[in-house]
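Quick start: read one record
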Amino acid sequence: MKKFGHDVEPADDLEMAEFRRGFARVGDDHKRILAALMTRLMALEERGDTDAALSLVDQVRRVLVAKPAPLH
């Protein structure tokens, strides 16, 4: 498997499946936020700023796996 900087490996099939499941659950507002974050992630990758990119990936993962608050 091809490795990226700082021992970061591309997502495997399980991680991609988790991403797709999470993305399917989020609403349109979150999808717009994620689209903006992904654009920023690509810019960080082009600059070679791996630490910032990994932090952003963590933010994206938190958005995708967060459980919606119950409506009262």
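Residues 28-47 form the longest helix (20 residues).
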